Amino acid sequence: MSRIFALLLLCLLPFGAQAEQVVAALSQTRVSVNANFDGSEILVFGAVKRDKPVPTDSPLDVIITVAGPEQVETIRRKDRRFGIWINVEAQVIGHTPTFYTVASTRPIADILPPLTDSLWKITADKRILPALRGNPAREALIELRQKDDLYRTREGEVVLSADTLFDTSIALPANIVEGAYATRIFLVRDGEVIDSYGTSINVQKVGIERWLYNLAYSQALIYGLMALAIAALSGWAASEVFRLIRR
Amino acid sequence: MQIFLPIAEVSVNAFTLLGLGGIVGVLSGMFGVGGGFLITPLLFFVGIPPAVAVATSANQIVASSVSGVLAHFKRKTVDIKMGVVLLIGGLVGSAIGIQIFNMLKALGQVDLLVTLCYVVFLGIIGFLMLIESIRAIRRARGRPGGRPARKKHLWVHTLPFKMKFRASGLYISAIPPIAVGVMVGMLGAVMGVGGGFIMVPAMIYILGMPTKVVIGTSLFQIIFTAGFTTLLHAYTNHTVDVLLAFLLLVGGVIGAQIGTQIGLKLKAEQLRIALALLVLAVCLKLGIDLLIPPKDLYSLGS
Q: Which residue ranges run through the membrane (chain B) (predicted)?
């Protein structure tokens, strides 16, 4: 049904506007965070679909972005007061993704004019609170996240073969935040985005991780008592074990 | 072996956590301190979010204290009566302390106050203990084999409501232990620790209890204060990570047993010098952090 719909849509589109289309897939659309989760590699791959021969006059480029769930952050600034370093200022800064990666076939500055970049919010600079550009707190947030390897720019890491097949791998970090990771794929030619495709990767805790997390939030008192019981029991067990060893 | 912690939401090495728990457990068993003032900064260092680190270390302290106190029970070095009196004061103190903490939170700068509290109290206590125990060792050297002089009549012995604390060999008023409990409970709530490192010297120097009984009694009292803190954090902030606590306490309970053995072999003065040096080291580290320019002027936090 959806295929027929897509086909219909294709016919309705003005001829030429959609001369090249992106068809993409992910190696996995669900990431399960279990007890031994240590980051994950997601392969993003696809092809360029076209009904005419490959245009040779200008190069084709592919840009892939992955953005983690958004959070509101407080950014504190330290300063020296009375000889000691203390937090002097706290600023609450609007929704920013906890993770952001941009991968491309070539340096983005070479393939995308700033205006197009702004329009599609592709680079971190255009995607992360562009309205607050120049605000030291916003710059600090981007810098801190880059230092933690949460915001990454991977220029030249998307491999495009024969102007048709492309692929790259996106590394999700070990200290991951649960939620939907919005993935976008852009086809760029002559500084214009000629097609884009969006999907998402769902990151979720499973098994004991899920169970403990839910219990901690929905049955906080029981969870707390359980934590105490575990603590008291293991304290007792250790004492008994040592008594037996010493005997 | 990497392990993902469900509440802290970070992936850390399980052996690092076992080791951390072990080290703190040894100290806990040796000195009768819960180790909160050590484990919390250590957890920050391995990348656990501060709120989770504070709450979870309270949980781990319960385990190592239970393990330690049972070893002391077998040797009859716990003054339960004294522990209960201290605990009554402690719970009152905690309630007051939490009020003060919330008041300061509303004013901002609570982090700074906590750090300053640490530096000042650790500094004073560490310094006083160090001087006192060095003096005690000198005195013991001067009179080899001789018993140290009987404790002088302290001012605490003149107050009313006298009670007999048999295990401590004391017949003193209930007012000083309750006051000590209140004071420690208050500081503990503000600083987010069990308060053993304040309690132990207070019991030795203010109440005049024998060092061997002090450790078991302090551990006994800490179980309840740390347990209360854990429950409060789990219920209101959802910041207790059981998996993290479990890894820490497996190391911790074993460490506490080893620590108790070491503690029994050491002389009381040596024990006090070691604790004093440890307290001073933590104080120095925290103090230096306040004075040197930070690597990042900005920090992220919720």
A: 12-39, 83-101, 113-134, 178-206, 213-236, 242-259, 271-292
